[in-house]
Design brief:
Helix content: over 70%
Number of strands: 2
Strand order of the largest sheet: 1-2
Structural class: mainly alpha
Shape: elongated
Number of helices: 3
Length: 71
Amino acid sequence: VRSIDVVNELSYSKPSVSIAMKNLRNAGLVTMDESGYLHLTAAGRKIAETMYERHTLLSDWRSEERRVGKE
C-alpha cells in the first residue's frame, strides 16, 4: 500500500498521512521502497497484531453484550 492509497481509502488529508508516515518511519515501524510502497517492520507488525487482537476482543465483547441484552 502507498501513502496515497491510505489518503484515498480513509479520506485523510495528504499532509496528515505524510506526517504520520514520517513519524512511523522515524520510529522504525514502517519502511518505504523505491516505488513508494509501505512495509511494516517486525516491530511495526508486532504492534499492528496487538492492536488487531485488542480490536477483535473488544468487538466480540460488544457483540456478546448486545446479544445478552436482547435476551
